[in-house]
Design brief:
Rossmann fold; Ribosomal Protein S5, domain 2; 11 helices; 21 strands; binds thymidine-5'-diphosphate; binds magnesium ion
Length: 448
């Protein structure tokens, strides 16, 4: 019988202590510490290793495994690294199982691909696979016992293995229930060791809820090589995959997918989907935002409605609420767009999230358009960061953004001075401060 020690771990930040606290000393959240039983076996001692000079380290140039899903490969930084451990997090129903089964199907054409399913039965997976097509060679194991899963990985040694989900795995050595912090951490730690030893690229599926409170993914982030977050709400067709952490590539790349009746389809040109560029409406503005190395046109929508509330509402969907509050304040103080007695709603069309300051100007223009009841000029987009003084600051990688606007056939871009001259038909309208940008961006009725 392995010796066990009782620890308490925070489900939010992973802080652990020898006793229980009502409030986590690590992150300050209340009621997040839960019992976390560590088994002595998870701390087995390894012999000391010699120290090497970096020059003497053998670095095998890892051949990446293409997943066959171009958008996923991009987010991973060019494919899966052999023997790495990747965590794919997302809310239930967002499409994690679908995405990974699609990838396994493509991988299985040339390599061994194993799906360990703890959530669905083999028959359920087969039904899904029939919808997606091409998954006949994917191997499947319906198992939730961690020891059995590890033993299978050691003997079968597939090239790629997907564990769906890490929360269903259960180890006898840990006293707590499946899905608890202790179980999830034990499973991930032992899978990590097996992934490296047996050379299996392992992808863990982890559920997170909107507020990220379910035990699991959060406490694993430091352990795994990559953390991918699959976002989008189930009522919209579009999904965005982002890298939150990546030891083998950039964390800026995103992958865009559309959920269809026959699985997830990559969207190689998201601007065409999210940035409705023809015919402006009141309360709508097109932003050219940068997601990693990829510029994307997004349509921002705003609604300004009179209210009797003492504290008018500021509701942001897809935009950081603090950023929205700041933009509303700057509009009122520096651009004479008074919103003190109005509710302001801002939404990014298509259910996408954006947290790049380069989108500030488009958010402000959408709100100004809604407040004044006049649309943006036809074929105009905007980018630029708004400072607290109302002055606009150039956005990074302006050339890239301009290229994207030109590609989508826009007429003009409202941007801060210092933005380079674009080639071709696209014009740049420079605006130094927010009031000038509003004049340049909105149709003439706004010039009062
Ligand atoms: P799923 O991959 O099971 O989500 P997760 O593993 O993240 O919980 O699928 C999510 C949703 O996608 C589900 O509600 C059904 C829908 N769906 C389609 O619309 N088309 C398809 O081809 C498939 C397989 C699923
Ligand atoms: Mg699933």
């Amino acid at each position: 019988m392995a010796k066990t020690a009782v620890q308490f771990a925070c489900t939010d930040c992973g802080y652990s202590a020898g006793r229980w606290f009502g409030r986590c000393p690590g992150c300050g959240e209340f009621g997040t510490l839960v019992e976390d039983v560590l088994s002595a076996s998870s701390a087995a001692k390894a012999p000391p290793k010699p120290v090497l000079r970096l020059a003497d380290v053998q670095a095998e140039d890892a051949q990446r495994i293409a997943t066959g899903v171009a958008e996923l490969d991009r987010v991973l930084g060019g494919g899966l690294v052999p023997a790495s451990l990747v965590l794919v997090g997302g809310e239930p129903g967002v499409g994690k199982s679908t995405l990974l089964l699609t990838a396994l199907a493509a991988i299985s054409k040339e390599r061994r691909a194993l799906l360990v399913t703890g959530e669905e039965s083999s028959a359920q997976v087969k039904l899904r696979a029939a919808r997606l097509g091409g998954a006949e060679r994917v191997e499947i194991l319906a198992e939730t016992d961690l020891d059995n899963v590890l033993a299978t990985l050691e003997t079968e040694r597939p090239d790629v293995c997907v564990i769906d989900s890490v929360q269903t795995l259960y180890s006898q050595d840990v006293g707590s229930a499946p899905g608890s912090v202790g179980q999830v951490r034990e499973a991930a730690a032992r899978l990590l060791r097996t992934a490296k030893q047996a050379g299996v690229a392992t992808i863990l599926v982890g559920h997170v809820t909107k507020d990220g409170t379910v035990a699991g993914p959060r406490v694993l982030e430091h352990l795994v090589d990559c953390v991918l977050q699959f976002e989008g709400d189930r009522y919209h067709a579009h999904r965005v995959l982002r890298a939150v952490k990546n030891r083998f590539g950039s964390t800026n790349e995103i992958g865009v997918f559309e959920m269809t009746g026959t699985g997830l389809k990559g969207v190689p040109d998201p601007s065409e989907v999210f940035g409705r560029t023809a015919g402006s409406e009141v309360g709508s503005a097109v932003a050219c935002a940068l997601e990693g190395t990829r510029p994307i046109l997004l349509e921002l929508q705003a609604l300004v409605a009179p209210t009797d509330l003492a504290m008018p509402r500021r509701v942001a969907t897809g935009v950081d609420p603090k950023r929205l509050a700041m933009i509303v304040a700057v509009l009122g103080r520096h651009a004479r767009v008074a919103l003190g007695s109005a509710d302001v709603f801002v939404n990014v069309a298509g259910g996408v999230r954006i947290d790049e300051p380069g989108a500030d100007l488009a958010i402000a223009l959408a709100i100004a358009s809604a407040a004044r009841g006049v649309p943006m000029r036809d074929g105009h987009a905007a980018f630029g960061e708004i400072g607290l003084t109302g002055r606009l600051r150039p956005a990074t990688q302006a050339e890239r953004r301009l290229e994207e606007c030109a590609k989508l056939g826009l007429a003009a871009v409202v941007a801060p001075p210092g933005t380079p001259e674009p080639r071709g038909k696209l014009r740049v309208v420079n605006a130094d401060k927010l009031p000038q940008a509003i004049t340049a961006g909105l149709t003439a009725a706004a010039d009062n």
